[in-house]
Batch of 2 targets.
Target 1
Amino acid sequence: MTFEEPIEKWSSGVATVTLGATASEGGTRCRKIDIGGATTLPFLTFEGITPNKPVIAMEVLDCVPSDWPETLIKPFADVVGKPGEWAAKCVSQYGAEMICLKLEGIHPDSEDKSPDEAVKVVEEVLRAVDVPLVIWGCDVDEKDNIVLPACSQAAAGERCLIGTAKEDNYKTLVASCMADGHALIAESPLDINIAKQLNVLISEMGFPLNRVVMYPTTGGLGYGIEYAYSIQERGRLAALMGDKMMSPPVVCQIGQEAWNAKEAKATTEEVPHWGPAEDRGIMWEAMTAVMLLQAGSDLLIMRHPKAVAMVNQIIDMLMSKQQAAK
């Protein structure tokens, strides 16, 4: 009796989204990056292909971080508050393939920066690095609706990834990204029905789904990540079974969630039995990233260079198994 290996056969796959525009495409990026495109569950090379490896974008703020612990600030101590230099260091010293510019300084409870100030920061970062750029707002809808369209226009033609658009606040950003040739982040809470509905609403405005990246909010390791895992996995399964509205690739805020955990931020003096703080937070961020990679994340926003290096090694190892299987 012969053994027949049980292999799932999928009818569809994850959409491919291209980020960054080169000079030949009207932009100034040195290269473009494709994310998504898988025709299988993450890294199951015997059932399908993963044509584009997951990518890490290193996070850069437009202001001095107010809640980052010393371990996280230390690698960037000479560049915090200087977004262009910060981004350049991430690329030149830490090998970042993409930069995520987080506009925390525009938050009304932070520095309440104006649209003009935000535009200057976007232009500064675009001049400082030539990798594809993510532009992330402050999560206050009224302020994002004023600032992000201005940033979108300033970066027109660069094919940035801009967000976030939500179910009750998407029209302004969709219109801006459509006009300026950018991709769009569609944010939903941990609810697969809302995620799908938002993609329907966005596509009904004529925005192509191959320029949408889904952001199903998540938590860090130890903070409900199991539920986040199951939601992302259900989304991937829906895409593989042919649900076009669930086919966009997924982005996750790894650094933001991991470094909010007390296990990552507490000092060695506060909890000496947890081990050295300079190692603990880095491992927390790396483990959060690896878990969400297995759930199906295609783009990871991360902070600490050592955590980024660890996760890149794991991505390379997992992708090498696919190459060996060919």
Target 2
Amino acid sequence: MLSEGELFTGPDPDEMRDFFRKKTKNLVNKLTTVSKAVSELINDGNYIAVGGFGMVRLPTAVLLEIVRQKKKNLGFSGHTATLDCAILVAGKTFNKCDISYVIGLEAFGIPKQTRKYFETEVNYTEWTNAALAWRYKAAAMGLSFIPIRTMMGTDTAKYSAAKEITCPFTDKKYLAVPALYPDVAIIHVHEADIYGNSHIRGITVSDQDLARAAKRVIITSERILPTEFFRNNPENTTIPFYLVDAVIEVPFGSYPGNMPYEYFLDSDYIRNWIEAEKDVEEYKTFINKNIFECKNFYDYLNVNGGFEKMKMLRNIEYMIDNKKGN
């Protein structure tokens, strides 16, 4: 089988090992601001990947700031990417994408302008969600590829950049998917300390592999905790400090997405986004109001209901009747 897709990132493990060998692993205070993290760690032309899953644990503050700072010509990993993808499209920030699950905003529908952007301005290569996860896994293991059986015999494989190989032990056929080493990973977590030790409650999806695969890691966290939270309970360390380059405390940082055990997604906001994308002028007005006219993430929260809205979404997550819980 010959695949036709373009490979956007190099899978050379020795090149990456050399980079990681030289990366500082000092235990230093990495607290910063969203603006500085985006300005200093994300460059035009970089390849970025976002943690979480669909609308769960979105690092919204960083995504909005990427658009606000007008980053361009990025590569983007479309691994379970929904609203994160739509936000980055709003600024036309990326022009190449490894796609597996993109454009659709879950059960809410297809955002029209986002789809049009992919049809006209994005160079993409196709994968499945599992294949992209295995690509992170290969990178986290320090390999150049990993053999898989998903996608075999499908058109997805044809439009990917995978290569068919034969097992030297059994003569069985496999697809070799190349390691994916992003320049920058952006991950939202429940708790972190000032050094970057991070804790995710519930499903981690591919975030542990993603943090190990990326050259630079930006963590946004619902809260900053004392290091003793990790030191006294090592099992709390989902992502260790030496992988992390920047830490920012961003309460309600996944809004309008869901943060498990913290707050539910804002379904009204998602519907408004879908509706705005139906008309070019309404879409421009919506994006200006929600991104460019907000000087930071807290402005954005205030524009969309502020603390009162966040409390309502928290009650929904906790299954508290909002009529009785206010």
